[in-house]
Amino acid sequence: MAAELIFELVTELLGAAAECAFNGVTAAVKKKYKRADFRKKIAKAADIIQNGGVVAFPTETVYGLGADAFNATAVERVYAAKGRPGDNPLILHVANVAQFLELVEAPPAYALALAKAYWPGPLTLIAKKKYHLPGWVGGHPFNATATVGVRIPKHPAALALIQAAGCPIAAPSANKSGRPSPTSAKHVKEDFATGEVDMILDGDISNVGIESTVVDVTGDFPVILRPGAITREMIEKTTKLHLPNAAGPAGQTTSVASQAPRSPGMKYRHYAPKAPTSILQGAEKNIAAYILQQCEERPGEKIGVYVREATKKHMGEKPPTNAVFIPLSGKPETAAQNLFNDLRQFDAKNVSAIFAEALTEAGVGVAIMDRMRKAAEGNVLDV
Ligand code: TXA
Ligand code: MG
């Protein structure tokens, strides 16, 4: 009940912030969020968190698997449920900047500029941990970390949950380690058995669709550890700083692929559908020809084809019957939103291989290609 009261207060207090958090959230979520029964669900989820339970909750990027960040037993349950290695720290989700400042040592001015510009939103800042906090907070209870990753999510249900719980919520993406991240409550249900998660808060699909941009703000310059919807260009513009370690085509690929993993999560197999995946890079007609040949050589198998409409056209009026098509949007925001659901769809359709067309690596395209390459375990073919 206490949690429900807090929620009522917070909804009023947040006022403008909550309204702003609605931007980009689907009408279905807006409507759901305002309903009394959904508010009761948030209160219930907050009570579970306060009592050391584990709750899967929606964010605008992907669903998170949350626990009270200061409850070691609860955090350990999150690691166990995910099958996550203990050396891979978690993101702490907070509801406002004051809560962020309680977790970190004075961040540099450029970090605050980023927070001001993009919170609430799909940005995680890795900062020096406040000296008096328990060494393990932000990671596995058996590991000490000098830094913490923090973000304020934009999804209204996530914000309301954090406020009602009254504590930072430690949450990795709510998928089993190595599986594509979840962008709907259905995806969470696919990965977890009852008992592993105490409650799943259903907040419709995550509209960004890929995980937050992770930026290390412990040094003189921001360093992108994981690309996301907040792009390199946006970060450079906001901070008026030039990011070091730019490499790759058109200077777009950030540090991620080329650097030693400063963000431990980047070294593990990720986002992988069950079928071996290949990324095809080249002219539309070459990509189409390559896939046609694969379909022809493997008549008894279902071949997953993940290409743009324009590329599919090159496969002729009557594409092979063993090809299973899922359209890939040429619009980066839409491609990002659909990516993880599409990978899971290929699993559901039992394809034995997936051929995906490479997208242009600019803006959000950098983050999409980062996830696609990981899904393909680096298997990129020039055709
Ligand atoms: O959008 C997101 O970020 C989602 C939603 C739920 O907020 N969360 C998410 O969490 O993607 P996860 O655990 O799947 O990815 C967190 C990434 C990992 O690569 C992890 O290594 C990195 O952030 N990370 C977290 N804390 C860190 C730290 N203190 N230092 C370096 N990297 C850190
Ligand atoms: Mg993850």
Describe this structure in words.
The protein is α/β, with parallel strands linked by helices and 383 residues long. It folds into 2 domains: 2-251, DHBP synthase (Alpha-Beta Complex), CATH 3.90.870.10; 277-382, 3-Layer(aba) Sandwich (Rossmann fold), CATH 3.40.50. It is 38% helix and 14% strand. The strands form 2 sheets. A 9-stranded mixed sheet has the order 7-1-2-6-3-5-4-8-9, with helices on both faces. Strands 12-11-13-10-14 form a 5-stranded parallel sheet, with helices on both faces. α1 packs across α8 (156-165). The longest helix has 17 residues, at 332-348. Bound molecules: threonylcarbamoyladenylate (TXA) and magnesium ion. Magnesium ion binds at residues 172-173, 181. Residues 172-173, 181 line the site of magnesium ion (MG).
Describe the structure using short key phrases:
binds magnesium ion; 2 domains; alpha/beta; binds threonylcarbamoyladenylate; 383 residues
